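ok so for the tutorial part 2 we go from a plain amino acid sequence to predicted structure tokens. step 1 is just haveing the sequence, like this:
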Amino acid sequence: MQFPFRTGRRAVLAAAVVVALPGAWAQADYPAKPVKVIVAFTAGGTTDILTRAVSQKLTERLKQTFVVDNKPGAGGNLGTELAARSAPDGYTLIVNSVGPIAVNPTLYKKLAVNPLTELVPVVQIADVPNVLVVHPSVPAKTVDELVAYAKANPGKLNYGSTGIGTSSHLSGFMLAKRTGADYTHIPYKGAEALKDLLAGRVQFMFATIPSVIQHIHSGGLRAVAVTSAARSRSMPSVPTVIESGYPGFEAGSWFGFFVPKGTPEPVIAALNKAVNESLPSLQEQLVREGADPVGGSPQQFGQFVQKEFEKWRVIVRESGATAD
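step 2 — the prediction. this is what the tokens look like for a chain of 324 residues:
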């Protein structure tokens, strides 16, 4: 069958369609070149470990290299700003977490960008609960025993954190508020907190499971409780703080993909689909490392992020924590 040549108005319309095709084909063929995945923290941390695992699967599935680019600084704000100001074409992504997205907008007096409006949620990778760990010198195997010990020894229990306003700090604040016990907060810069906990210079800490799971297995630390709503698949024998008698006590980290505002919906859909299809093959690895895989739609992740922001906004303000 032969089609007649278009003339006049039809020719103009046809030309307009042709002009529009390159953008449509670019989205349909996504990704057509390597993709940069920003991590707003140093190499070797929980965000970096999870990002590299998922990026490798995306490289295999989508036949383009997903290159991890670590941009640490300012509590994750530096990498977050770089991602938000990148071209919204799907070739610069960020795997971000609870701190830069849900905590920092309240914690910091001024941010260069608002991550809640300048970044678009794509898909949640995993939940990573905090685990309350104690040095073996502390004679407490349960939350109640830790609270009782603190009350019997006022001023003697110090807890470390990876910095003011971090999940580890705010989890400790929540425990103190709920139990009425006396704990002294000792903020550190990143991994230095864990080093002092292992040495016994601080007595307990709320830490991400991946950062301490090997020390729990070796006996260097004792796991008391996890901060998720349900028990972690990584440590199913460890009870939750909620089970320990503190309803509603949920705190910890979560991780997911975000793209700059304005990224085309077909690109977001393609990324979401690829990550969801990759997670089943990563489940065993992620659980072994202390993460509970999640997945889901962009809408589900967006609703979750908003609820997390609202929750942590209240806690940050109650704690009095601020950062410049």
